[in-house]
Amino acid sequence: MLSIKESAGETLSMRAPALETSDIQATVLRPRPKPYCGEYVVLRIGNAEQGREMLRRVLPHIAPADEWWAPSALGWLGIAFTFEGLKALGVPQASLDSFPIEFRQGMAARAAILHDFGANAPANWEYPFGTPDVHVALAIYAKGNQDLQEVLEIARKSHHDLPQIAVVYRMAFGELPEGRNPFGFKDGLHNPHVEGSGPAATTREEPSIKPGEFVMGYPDERGETANVPIPLELRRNGTFVAIRKFYMDVAAFRKYLRAQASSPEEEELLAAKMVGRWRSGAPLVLTPDHDDPSLGGDANRNNNFRYADDKKGLKCPFSAHIRRVNPRDALKDDVVATNLHHFLRRGTNYGSPLPDGVLEDDGAERGGVFLLIGAHLQRQFEFVQSQWVTDGNFISHGTEQDPLIGNNDGEGVFTIPKVPVRRRLQGLPSFVSVRGGEYCFMPGLRALRWIADLKPMMEADDVRSR
Amino acid sequence: MLSIKESAGETLSMRAPALETSDIQATVLRPRPKPYCGEYVVLRIGNAEQGREMLRRVLPHIAPADEWWAPSALGWLGIAFTFEGLKALGVPQASLDSFPIEFRQGMAARAAILHDFGANAPANWEYPFGTPDVHVALAIYAKGNQDLQEVLEIARKSHHDLPQIAVVYRMAFGELPEGRNPFGFKDGLHNPHVEGSGPAATTREEPSIKPGEFVMGYPDERGETANVPIPLELRRNGTFVAIRKFYMDVAAFRKYLRAQASSPEEEELLAAKMVGRWRSGAPLVLTPDHDDPSLGGDANRNNNFRYADDKKGLKCPFSAHIRRVNPRDALKDDVVATNLHHFLRRGTNYGSPLPDGVLEDDGAERGGVFLLIGAHLQRQFEFVQSQWVTDGNFISHGTEQDPLIGNNDGEGVFTIPKVPVRRRLQGLPSFVSVRGGEYCFMPGLRALRWIADLKPMMEADDVRSR
Amino acid sequence: MTTQTPTRPESDQAVEKKIARVRELYATGPEVGKTALETLIRELKSGSSRREPATRMSSAGRVGSRQGKVSELLFIVPFAPGGAERLRALLELRNGDFSDTDRVGTVHDMRFVFLDNDTKLLFATAYDGEWDPYIGDFAATIPDGLDVLFSACEGWPGIRNPEVKDWIAKYQIPAVGWYVAHPDLTVRDIQRLKRIGKAAEEFLDKIQ
Amino acid sequence: MTTQTPTRPESDQAVEKKIARVRELYATGPEVGKTALETLIRELKSGSSRREPATRMSSAGRVGSRQGKVSELLFIVPFAPGGAERLRALLELRNGDFSDTDRVGTVHDMRFVFLDNDTKLLFATAYDGEWDPYIGDFAATIPDGLDVLFSACEGWPGIRNPEVKDWIAKYQIPAVGWYVAHPDLTVRDIQRLKRIGKAAEEFLDKIQ
């Protein structure tokens, strides 16, 4: 029998071991290449043995975090599984049962918690998101289109002769000019530093976060090491990924700014207030009055700040996107333990940019796909989404939501602290809509092998907790 | 055995019987004479039989409500007893036990409920108030000093040869010029009309109140007839009196007005706002901008108003004294049943007036003694004192108290609604201080006889509930 | 304003004595409590509490506890035969709609919990000041709202019956600990603040 | 803003059915309830309710009821040996001082009631939204405040133990009826209104 009880020793705090970067998928720990292009592919597994065969074939090509961008590699392949996918692969029931409830339910079932109402409701998602047809998610990154095609070919070959493996979704993505997102902001700037994952890219104001927050098998910020899912072989060096695909209504964003502002400079200021950074990536806290492209481009400085000097939000509003999703030291007088609510963001953009100055929507789909990665979906992604993105209570802002990614419905407000009188923008629409999402489990490489080597009708005793 | 259970029939609503005015003391139903002078005398009874002898002698002189001011009478004598007094007179234990708890405890013990803190605390009261030495209170009213002396002589003779009857307190009172109170306001204007007590003196906006609210033996506003204290002979046509002796700090009142106002007219306005009436007695609701002496002097009009046209308190502030102690129709949308919180006010003034224009205190004692009369001390006097006089919650005024008789301590506030901006007076001191008080039972004339005729060691069975 | 009997701060000695007593009791309890107690004592001693003495726990009159302006009342009473079924159906019909309670204007919250296999009702409320002075008013103005609820209980005398106070007192169980986030605010105070808040936001919207 | 699943108003038919059911049940109950019920039904039908559908009773997540933003949690749990004595001494020491709860910023009220001759603890609270998301934060930031209280209970696993949620759910009894005077206001909202109210009064004092 499988059991979720394990030796007490494992839940006690211990000296952080070096991360087994050779067993952790690159997607977890490493930023995407620069420049980048790529594709997400979703597979449906109709037969467990064919699924495992596909896995065995693709496994040698999954990028580990230690040689994630080895010159020899063409591109970089990541793989993750929904709960339905694990079932379809024949993972034993006791093991399935040991997964956290939110993963077993899946993102669509968690809509009430995630405030995925209205346009964002799962009923309005693109197929196959939110259906039981999503089993395996492949993320393929490459530096150029040629490399990408070669990796895609590897992926294709892993299942082209397996009739029960179906490609149910393919979606290309790629970098926009200057590494901006569709709204025109430099992105991918504010990931926490994972302790033991290598030297931090910059000198940082923010402390490193224990690896157990992001990868199972290591102590987390509570001094605990995950003891589910079982067995240990399956969870070690694995983690969870919340995939969110957003449509971004760039025209609506520009029109709203135009209507609220009386000059192009004011439009830029309001946009920066909503984001918390200028378009270059320069944080408002460090340069509150105007953009500073050299600061925005300097990886040693553009994420090296706190809110201690901006306690009234006069530089960066409390409600600004980046201050909400990563409050840093801003909530330190509250009972909130900010260090329990970090996750890693791996974002990619899709669609063509709306040309500069265009205020009318061209009808094209554009936006971003985010992989939000952490060992604790509930207290990381779900907490941030429900408490910080779609509510304002934590900053005493009532029901005010994130101005950029909140689920506003045309009645949203955004408060900009200012002396003598705060400014409040009214009538915010939703600038982004959720097109789909899934909770996935992203195992370590040995765990992938463990899954790939599962035998049909495997005896439960063989996977007893270790 | 005495029992407080009585036939159900008596507690049911019935057609209001005519009041037995010949059995009810004049003090309960009739306004004081005009002009008036008088004296309060407090007796201590050291021996029950001597007490009853005193009572037998004085009884023929107690004024009933039907011939309260018969031309033949010299003056008018009222009598009431504290709980200690009833004990001292030998009232049987079962009867004593049947009195309401607040009466048995006495006013001093109810200080927390009445907000008698600080300077108003019983510890600071004049002797003998709040001590067990107060047994019998005599109230003597007359039209002139000569008559008064003759009635006082009757009272004196009732006990001068009874060594165990001691006079522990005497206090003269009399009318101030123009029938004003020490603050300079015409008073005694706003008593409710008791149904069945004779024609109302004026046509009134306010409905008459059921006699059971003020005299036991009749249905009250809840349709109930009192069934305690027992026996029926004791309670029938009796009632309760809360005696309150106030010192009034006229110099402080004048100084405060002077400090807050920039002209004599404004002083008058602020004073009227605090009281709810101008000095003449003219109500603010009927004449919000200036005094109207003819209105103030017209008994047909000066109490004939409601607050329906002043729902925002722009004429008469919510917090004005007369609007607090008698909200009339002002609280009709609340759950409060205003008709359960009426009592009759019989006020008298003492001390010499502080001469007009004097702002410095002369050290003299001056003020008023109020007899607050009703069959239900708890839901009448105590309710009004705790909920309406010393709190502001019922009018959404937080802890703001009655500006005139509230227990303010120099930090009081008084809100005057005004457009565009309300005015709020700050730093209100107490303009009045409680010098003493007692809860008394004021029996009907036959009940007085019943007490007077009690036998020593009377068998309890003889007074079984009837 | 003098609206409260001022609570005299406890003497250091009295507090030390209480601390010693608590330590003694916790010494025999589980480890987790013992450690936690020491942290708590440090905090209490360092005076890190932000509360004024005036808002410490006090009595809400006859029975029950009070924090500042807010009191608690809780009673557990057997259901009359069929009472649980009646009350459940009624509460489901009301579906949280207590407009008569809104009118009372002094009730912060109120819950009805069914205990022991629907044999007992637990009623708990947080309210302003004291209910005693107002019980006559309830009987006069919203008697039905109360009778329809509490007639589900064994021996409910009816709100108009003067013995109702004794009935409540008989079943009431006072809290040993009572915490209120905003002990200085009554339901009406909050109502007023809401109005002011709305007006202030509109004002700021206009002058921004 | 879309922060709540909109509650669909019940159909007239569904309400009529509920009313019929309640009438039937009350028919066999005491007279006082029967009369009162008819008055109440008239009021409900006349739509005199001032409440928006959004603030009708709903679920507070796993167990418990919710009105607008405010949820209720109540559990009854046996005391551990000596637990009642320890907790009583502790609560008396605290004397209503819960500054750690102030820090939580989402707890409206909280009471500790001792039942059945000190053999059981009844804990009841009104709080904002859901406690589930924050339980990890409590464990990280104020573990002692919780452990020192609840270690008095039988089987308290310790706030740091992931099983604490199950422990609470096991003993929790959801309210059948739940009323909140200001369902639209969180503890922090009220805090903010207080600040605005104070500033507004100062402002008015100055311009009056």
Walk me through this protein's architecture:
The complex is a heterotetramer, with 2 copies of chain A (466 residues) and 2 copies of chain C (208 residues). With 466 residues, chain A is of the alpha+beta class. Chain A folds into 2 domains: 20-245 and 437-456, no CATH class; 249-342 and 375-434, no CATH class. Chain A contains 14 helices and 10 strands. In chain A, strands 2-3-1-4 form a 4-stranded antiparallel sheet. A 4-stranded antiparallel sheet of chain A has the order 6-7-5-10. In chain A, a hairpin with a 6-residue loop joins β8 (412-416) and β9. In chain A, α2 packs antiparallel against α14 and α9 packs across α10. Chain A is globular and about 70 Å long. Chain C is α+β, with helices and mostly antiparallel strands and 208 residues long. Chain C has 2 domains: 12-52; 58-171, 2-Layer Sandwich (Alpha-Beta Plaits), CATH 3.30.70. Helix content of chain C is 45%, strand content 18%. Chain C has helices spanning 12-27, 31-45, 83-94, 99-104, 135-141, 143-150, 164-171, 187-207, and strands at 57-59, 65-67, 70-78, 107-115, 120-128, 177-180. A 5-stranded antiparallel sheet of chain C has the order 1-2-3-5-4. The longest helix of chain C is centred in the C-terminal third of the chain and has 21 residues, at 187-207. Chains in contact: A-C, A-D, B-C, B-D, C-D. Chains A and D meet through α13 of A and α4, α5 and α8 of D. β6 (177-180) of chain C pairs antiparallel with β4 (107-115) of chain D.
